[in-house]
Amino acid sequence: MLAMFLLQGLWVTSRQTLSDRDYQYARCGRETWERPSSVPGYYTSCGNIHDGILAYRLAGLPLTLNFLAERGMDRFRAPEDRMVQTGGEIGTWELRHQMTHVLLLERLPFLFAGCVLGGCIWWVTRRLYGNWGGYTALALYCFCPAILRGCLSPNTEVLAALGVYGGVYTSVGVAHAMQGPVAKWRPRIVLLTVVLGVAAAAHIAALPVAALLGLALMIWVAEGHRSQALPIVLAASLGALLLVLVCYGFSADAFSYVFRSAAGFLWFSTAAAKRFYSTLGEAGITVAVVSAIFLYLGIRRSRYFGNTAPLFCAVALILLVMTGAPGSPWIWSIPFWLTFAGGVFADAFEGPRGRMALAAAGAIVALQAILCVMSLPGMA
Known about the structure:
Shape: globular
Order of helices and strands: HHHHHHHHHHHHEHHHEHH
Mean pLDDT: 88
Low-confidence stretches: none
Strand order of the largest sheet: 1-2
Distance between the termini: 22 Å
Number of helices: 17
Oligomer: single chain
Helix content: 55-70%
Strand content: under 5%
């Protein structure tokens, strides 16, 4: 299924053209790896990146590696055929006309992040709900146009969604480990620190969101150890901020600008939810989520922690809007909605009308797959 997700991404990429935004991420992303900005007082020529440094680094990394490989090959080329002619640098013109596959190289890290997020959804749902619940959630994810769009341009959204989803469920994993020996806590706390670091580096607003949701679920699960939940989350959050500082190349001024900007400001609105669930391309997911909500309310055995936790997180996230920087927090809610749907459907599959529920879920997934494929360029 993830291979089908990747093929859809590569299909769309083959029909895209480079935009000004692509050049901005390519230029400034390469600057984060290769050299500091030539503009005094700024981290890159794009200015001080205050919302998410990780997207710039990921967009620039394949291009930097490609550039280093081409410069290494220059040693075996005639002087007039070398890519880097003078000064050891490459400008925008050379980036477009001499470096091959720029558009693909720039999108590969985001497609990979999308595949990792799909793998996380599969691991969580299969572990919680079994194979059928995992397959349902993953199939809906792999044919979600909103996720595909997020993976097909340099941006922070899918990276932040990965950090938030991973942070929440890693927090739950830490809470479960707290019921056992202390030695089993440490690896999961280290993993929580890394995942929260991904969230913070993707978008600074994602760190408090992931930390607060994770803390709430930890307090819910960690019976007998609830007093230790807050210190663990605080320690992991401080470690995450240290990882963000590392992503800024230990530049204290650029790092401090994150906290002097308004990038972390959030508010609440239902506009994003109305727009997402009224889009034709997401009709299958809309039917799946609405059906899951009715089943959740109507079937007592579906109302347990495994289903309630993703529903709680999804509702909280889809109501968030950015007020200080561009962003789409509603995308962060999609993995939780699909996890919730997979869990409720898995309960229905085991009910007295399991075959009917399985056929209905299959029809919903098929509808979403058709709508998603038809929305791809060149398929309408």
